[in-house]
Structure formats: C-alpha cells, structure tokens
Sequence to fold (176 residues):
Amino acid sequence: MSQKPGIETRFEQGLFASRWLMAPMYLGLVVSLGMLTIVFTEELVYYAGKTFTMSADQAILAILTLIDLSLAANLLLIVLFSGYENFVSKLDIRDSADRPSWMGKVDFSGLKMKLIASIVAISGIHLLKVFMEIGKGAAPLDSVKLQWLVIIHLTFVASGVLLALMDWLASKTDKH
Fold:
C-alpha cells in the first residue's frame, strides 16, 4: 500500500476544514431566528390588542399568521441543527434532556423532506389566508394573483412528491 504524497494529504485536510466556512452562515440563521421572534412578538402584541374587537374570521387570520411565523421558525431550527450536524460538526449536547429526538438522525434526505413539507405548509397557510379574504371587501379579488398563488402552491406540492419519489427510488437501488 502506497502513502499519499504530503501535498495531497494537506490539500484534503484543508478541504475537510473548509466545512467551517459554513459556521458563519449558521450563525446568520440564529440571527434570522431572533429577527423572526421579534416579528412574531410584534404580530402577537398587535393582534392581542384587538382581541375584543375582531371578528371570528379576523381572529382566524391572526392565528394563521402566527402559525405561519412559527412554522418558518421551526424550519429555521431544522435547517440550523441538521445542517450544522450534517455538514460542520456534531453538537456535543448528548447529556441534555432537552435535546430533540430527531437531532443527529436527520440526514440530507430527511432534511430535504422536512424542508419541502414546511414550505408546503407555509404556502398552504398563506393561500388559506388569501382565500379567507375573498369577498371581505378589503381589496378587490385579483384573480391573476390568486391563480399564481395556487400554481405556486401546487408546484411546491408536486416538488415534494417528486423529491419523495426520488428518495424512495434511490433507497431501492443498489449502492455502488
């Protein structure tokens, strides 16, 4: 068995160490989560102040807005934890009782599926909010906008189905 030349070994070590260039991106996602928390809090305070004067439909729209923001935050956490663990370094928090059960078990394929499922859910909630606004008189019905929202949502759904199908097919093939 032959030894690798020193330059090749150093190159490979440098290449492997380059994964740490992703760390600032994950730190940016933590900042984004903070931003989303502020927006969520602003929305919650805004809607809480109108609780006694809003209609049932307005309350449902407010709740859907908060759910939408929380789904986006969940998505951020999934990408943050899974991405960091899959591509940079394992999080050394095994003794923590708070460690989510899925951490360390979500591979890139699972991350893709969670990502597309969250995007479909967020898109579906947004579409539902638009549907609930129809006929409320706040703004005239923009059928072209509505058509595009439905097309975009169905594109996300179809993408999710195709990704799941590709993963299923890949799991059925022999590994080379």
Q: What stands out?
A: The two ends are 23 Å apart (CA to CA). The chain has a mean pLDDT of 84. Helices lie at 6-17, 23-48, 56-87, 108-133, 143-172.
